[in-house]
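Purpose: get a first structural picture of the assembly so the mutagenesis plan has something to point at.
Setup: four entries, given in the order below. No constraints added.
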Amino acid sequence: MQDREETSPLTLNRLSVYLRCLRTLQQDGVRRIASQELADRYLLSASQIRKDLAHFGEFGIRGVGYDVDELARRLSSLLGLDDDHPILIVGMGNLGSALAHYLGFNHGAFRVVAGVDRDPEKVGRQMGSFTIRPVADLPTVVRESGAEIGVLAVPAAAAQENYDALVAAGVKAVLNFAPARIKERPGVPLKDVDLRIQLEEVAFFLGRDETETD
Amino acid sequence: MQDREETSPLTLNRLSVYLRCLRTLQQDGVRRIASQELADRYLLSASQIRKDLAHFGEFGIRGVGYDVDELARRLSSLLGLDDDHPILIVGMGNLGSALAHYLGFNHGAFRVVAGVDRDPEKVGRQMGSFTIRPVADLPTVVRESGAEIGVLAVPAAAAQENYDALVAAGVKAVLNFAPARIKERPGVPLKDVDLRIQLEEVAFFLGRDETETD
DNA sequence: AGATGTGAATGAGTTCACAGCT
DNA sequence: AGCTGTGAACTCATTCACATCT
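Result (structure tokens, whole complex):
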């Protein structure tokens, strides 16, 4: 059983994937599954599944496999998905409102509970269940809404100052959608999510020679 | 000078980051920069910058550093950002329209030129510069719009069939926002972008012990 | 002299192969 | 017998340190 600190993001992301697969299996009525079959069904690696899980304890039954329901429960708990995680969005421009709209609907543990913007014209506007507040009110907004996760959807140049403001206001983790490198404070994990980088990654392959057929 | 195939996504993503940093430097009027200073300014690793760049050729001047303008030009060309990359979105629900709205505005080389949906009620609706078309028209829509990149914003269960449809229609790369594992066809690179996984990654750290202060 | 480009050394992450349970 | 859990082998990625060039 390992400590939270020493878990790599890669492992962590795979746990999320496993949980998703298990949810599908639950719907299909599967009650037990072996690492090998899980791997086959969802294009994963059996030994990696076992290693990832073993990292956190003994989840399986030797000679049998994993109990789908129980494993799902334990992964959900491990990932902190049993508790609610209120989200606050900073920057209610195109991306910010797109995210509010998207995250506000589909997700269980994650729900957008507040949004702030620098622009006085956006302040006061209604967004689903909340009203956009001014950035200056961040501390109050965080306290009142109980927001745990901050989402940065501001221009690159404003990213660092808004991250700092979120930290100061007491947010516990930050997801950064701005295309900027932010200096992370210890204790407030930061995760960059840059759609442009993802697009550029696939675009890289577009120019490639079409004659090859491997 | 290396081949496209043998470049890791990690390296590729860093090239995007470097390019972004260079654009900022250009705006600040900086004409030359050494790997060490670039690293210091943007929290990167100097030796990694050099290795990443050297992977694609000799971009710098020994004893001097890199020419900001030229390096930016060469990275832009390498990443395929000099050409236009029209995007087609499959699934114009919450996420799809959020993405259309977002990508349609800010991005140079990337622009959403078309969108399709399964739901007859959404078909015909106007979305910025285009009208939503039925999924069945994919081949026609791809041909007419010249779309190169397909974006999947459909439910998980529909992801694989729509990826296949995109491939059949002639799209050259796919970005998948659906929380599903897709079987990739050789020649049509696929990149998963799962916002839920990113959220779950930061959520993992929320439960952690607050007494520690390292 | 000074910064790049690069082999060599280190470290991280994945796969293998089998001991150990059930 | 069968599948997990895990050390050992291996592959991939990063960092170091220096020879090379301007």
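Chain A touches chain B through 67 residues (CB under 8 Å).
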